[in-house]
Amino acid sequence: MNIVPLKTYFSKHLLLDEMEVEFLETVFTEKKVRRKQYILQQGDVCQLNTFVVEGCFRMFLVDDQGKEHNLQFAIENGWILDMESFYFGQPSRLNIEAIEHSIVYQIKKEDQFKLFTEYPKFNHIFRVLCENALISSQKRVLQNISSTAEERYIEFLNRFPQLINRISNVQIASYIGVTSEFLSKIRKEISTKQR
Prior knowledge:
The chain is of the alpha+beta class. 49% of the residues lie in helices and 22% in strands. Strand 4 and strand 5 form a beta hairpin. The longest helix has 27 residues, at 120-146. The radius of gyration is 18 Å and the shape is globular.
């Protein structure tokens, strides 16, 4: 396994020594994931925290009517997991699917805790990641209850410019909480305003 992507990622937060890098090699495993392949399905317990080396994933919920609701996208240098299922060992209500052929590094919960205990630097890094995820989640909830669909779409474009050519309009519509038809209407209106 080529540990360089993880070493580079963690070193952006805190510099790692040789022992810490070597330990990463023992607790992370590499996995190649095909497009449309799931790394977590509803009803399973999330056993692994996943770091995306290459590719793109989506985490989504399927409601009682069979409609999909995208909650998160993850691309290179991003993390994806069902945190509730991972930490509490409960069956997940979510699915995580590859949108592209991907390469990921994964760590089991017990190995992640071992990483925290034996090398506290990682505990700090993951705490910051969790805090950032909570802040992002709060912003999204506030946006969903106080913004128009057009404002949510513009925010998506501004926040995730690297995703625009990698995911379908159907996926974007699901993320911002509108139908793909309504998203098309929003895009036409924005285009008209920019002329």
